[in-house]
Structure formats: structure tokens, C-alpha cells
Amino acid sequence: MKYITHYHKRLKMHALKVLLGAWGIAAFFLPRIEFYESTGENRFTVYLYEHEVGFVADKEMVEDCIREARRELAEEADGLYIVEEPVIRYEGKEVIWSKCDDAETVTANIKKVMSEHEKETLIRAYTVKVNSQTVNLRTAEEVGALLSSTIARYDTEGRYELNMNLHPDRELNVLTASVSRSNSEYDAWDISAGVEGYMPQTVDEELLNDYMEFEEFDLGLKEIGFSEEVEVVEAYILEEELSTLEEATNLLTEEQEVQQIYEVQAGDTLSEISMTVGIPMETIVEMNGNILDNVNSTLNIGDELIITVPEPELSVVWTNREHYEEIYEAEIIYIPNDEWYTTQMVTLQEPSAGFREVVADVTYENDEEMSRTIVKEEVIMEAVPKIVERGTIVPPTYVKPISGGRLSSRFGRRSAPTAGASTYHKGVDWATPVGTPVYASSGGTVVKAGWGSGYGYVVYINHPDGRQTRYAHLSKVQVSVGQTVSQGDRIALSGNTGVSSGPHVHFEILINGSQVNPLDYL
Fold first, then answer.
1. How many domains, in total, are found in the chain?
2. DSSP 167-214
């Protein structure tokens, strides 16, 4: 028992020594100890689209990780990678100690979740614009192939090359296409070109041509280019908006129906316009229903007609130097006569064709010849020109004699509309209510005004160009014989007098005493 007590005392002494030692150490370090203070949430669980992507202590790091994930996805997609707008949520808590994820881990997790929320990927492409038409191609090589193939159709020897240059007036990087002679063409002398191939470019070309033989000319393609401005810009588009090279070529180079405006000129008729533009009259009427009712509708100077012509969107203008022999006609020589109308002409000398050898620069737009310039010619047999004397006075014009009305009977053969009526109609009829004003179709002198048997009441007007107009089946005549009238003056009121099948105006034009179809002259 005594031993235990002694041992217990020794334990007390050791404990007292340890406690005193601890107090000493604490006294030494006490000034350096910082007591824990609460700072709020300092560890965050990050959720992207409600998927957990990591633990962080700094929210700003997450924004950097999102940007990096997007960049990596775009690189892998080889385009502009678009995802749904990122939806980030943080759950924070206060901790004394906790391990957080590094940026690489958070980025990888964000990238994985983003790839599951892809909205669309815009691929890098090249947009080619010609007029208002655009096509999208995947590579710059395809753009070059498209434009080069258009040129190569006419540049069969490969003398020219395609150039792409920055547009000087655009803020964005817009390229425009042009064509120039290839460097190899400038570096190599063409022996077959004779003197022309060796002479310096400063020599006057016209003077040089006079001394050259026909076989010394360098024939073939001289110039080539696009008739429209071709623009190319890099863009990001959806995959389905891409065109194949074949589709783009067809779209830009095959003929399409292009709308154009034709302005009616003095002397134009619908039939002549139809032949000029190569479109049936019925089709022109259909496209211009606001102006034309039918193929016999009146055309007015300045009317703008919509017509469609087949044209490719991208056209090539090229000049080819050609050597040929031909039978040719001399230009007509006109002698003016100031006392005649322009419709009057007399041939004073009949023409005779000549024969010549020619070198000419012929300019084409696609396959259609636009102009021809003779560079050198040798006349083997001189052509005799045609000499024509013609008038300079513009003849009077003729207009429809009433406003409105329905064309009820045309010029020419017909079934007699009523007993006593002619089966060959020598004018045109417009059905219109009795009392409709009738106007002078052209200026002139009244030579008849009154009753005209089967025509009922009539007015006849002689015009300065030798023509005569007649107006029949009138209800009231408002001019007298010998009176001078101007185009558009009111001369009568429509009616139903004489041999008539109903209220209308009968109108004739006579040339040299014979009736002609008025619709060809209005």
C-alpha cells in the first residue's frame, strides 16, 4: 500500500511538470496565434444545367473554365460551336478545411456536360455573292474551282488566271474576283506571233498593225473577265446551307429567267417588241396585266413593260482576236430630205456586196456577240453602198379615240353582226355607252362631218402625213368641215346610228385611200 501511494505521488509530479512545460510553450507562441473567425460560404458546389461539375473556392475560376471548354469544343468541331446559354448554379457552405477541384478537372466536367447540350454547330465556309444571288462553299479551293471553271470555258489555252483581292471600300474582309494574264504568258515569247510578239508594248498598236501580215497576228483570247462584281467572304453557316461545287456552278452559270424592264419607245408595237425580246405577245400581256388587257391593247410612249429573259447570274465578257475572209455589205448612206416625213424614203442606188480579208477583235458576253472591231482589213472587192433619201420630219402619232370601251370587233373578215353589215370589217369597234366622248386620234383638218349612210353620223379627218381617220355610228357630231383639230380634241359623241348592232364607236385609218388595221398604228 505504501508503494502505491509513492507511485501516485510521482505521477502527480510528472503531470505538474508537463503542464508547466505546456504553459511555457504557449507563452512563447501566444503572440502568433490567430483565432478562427467565420467568413461565410467559402466552398461551392458548381452545377451546370443542374449537373454537378466540381467544387471550387473561387467563382471567377468557373467563368474561365466555361470559356476554355467552349474553345476546345469549337476546335474539335472545326467551326463555330453553339450550345444552349450556360445555366450555372452554386451551392455554398462554410468549411474550416476542404479539398477543391483544380481548373483542368472543372473544365473537363463542364465540357462533357456542354457536349450534351449542343444547340448547333456553324461550320466555316465561303459565301460567293453575284448580284443578289449567293452560294456557300466549304473551302476556298472550291471557290477557286467554281470561278476558274467559268473562265476556263472560254480560256481554253489557260492564258489567264483568277485573282482575289481585298475590296478597298469595305470594312469587313470582302474579296473581289478579277482575271489577269498569267505570268507565264508575259515571260515567254510567242514565236508564232511574228513581229507582234517581239515589239515593245510602247509602240502604237494601230501603226504596228498596218505593217503586219495577217499571219503575224497573235490570234485568240485577248481579254476576259466577269461582267458582274463577284464578292467572296468567309462566313459561319449551318451544314445544310452548303452547296456542292456542282450545285453552285449550275446556280450561277446556267440560264435563269431574269426580269427586266422594257420602256416603250415611239413607233413600238407589241408584235415588234415580242420579236425583239423573243417572248410571245400573250406572255408579255400576262406579265403586264396592269398595263395591257390583250394583244391589241394600246401602248403609250414611256410605258414600262416587264419582260423575262434567260440569263446566267454570272456572265463572262471576253474578247477574241479572229482572222477570216467574208462577203460584206457597205453601210447604207442616207441623204436627208427636210420636206419629207421619216416614213418616206427612196432608194437612189442599189447595193452590191464586197469581199475582204479581216483580223478583228470580237467581244462576247458568254456566247453572244456584243461588238466587233476591225484591227486590219484588206479589201479584195469593194462593196457598193446603198444610197437612200429619207425624210426628217417626225410624222404625227395616233391614239385610241375613246377612253375605255370594250374591243368588240377586229379588223378583217368576220360574220356579219347584223343585216346589211359588211363581212369584211375595215376598222375596229369599241363597244361603249351612247354619249361617250370621241376624240381626234391625231391632229388634222375635218373633211366630212355629218350623215354617212350605213355609217350613220361620221367625222373624217385628213392628217399632214397623208393619212385619214374615220369615226362612225356617232350620236352627235361636234366639229364642222374645214375645222382644224389637234390630237385629243373632242369631235363627237358615240352612238348607235346607221347599220349598227349596238352602241359603239367604229374607227378606221386609211393610207393612200385604203383601210389598214388601226391597231398597228395606235
1. 5
2. -TT-SS--EEEEEEE-HHHHHS--GGGTHHHHS-TTS-HHHHHHHS-G
